[in-house]
Amino acid sequence: MTSESFIWHRVSVSEKQKIKKEAKSIMDDFARALGKVKLGDDIGNIEREKDTREEKEPCKSDKEFRKLVFKNAPKRKGDHLIAEKGGWV
Q: 42-78 pLDDT, tens per residue?
């Protein structure tokens, strides 16, 4: 392929069909390859001695860093940052 073949252009119906066919072929090959992967018997079984963790000393905060973060935060309310939850999903 030459660099000219990568220049933006409108995709024709036949090119779209070719792209779909190639994409399906890639996905089918990938699915076949995944099917050949051998998994151990213990997959998904995580054994732990305890189900909880012990609390330790809290981290010490850097007051200058905190000031900088609050200064740059677009929205804040008192001692809290206001952030969007899951808007990128």
A: 666 677 777 777 778 877 878 888 888 888 888 888 8
pTM for this predicted structure: 0.39
Contact between 62 and 69 (Cβ < 8 Å): no
Residues 82 and 74: their CA atoms lie apart, in Å, by 8
Question: Is 70 in contact with 76 (CB distance < 8 Å)?
Answer: yes
Q: State the CB neighbour count (10 A cutoff) for residue 42.
A: 8
Contact at 8 Å (CB) between 81 and 69? Answer: yes
**Residue 81 · residue 73 · CB < 8 Å:** yes
Other CB atoms closer than 10 Å to residue 76's CB: what's the count?
14
And the tokens for 20?
């779909």
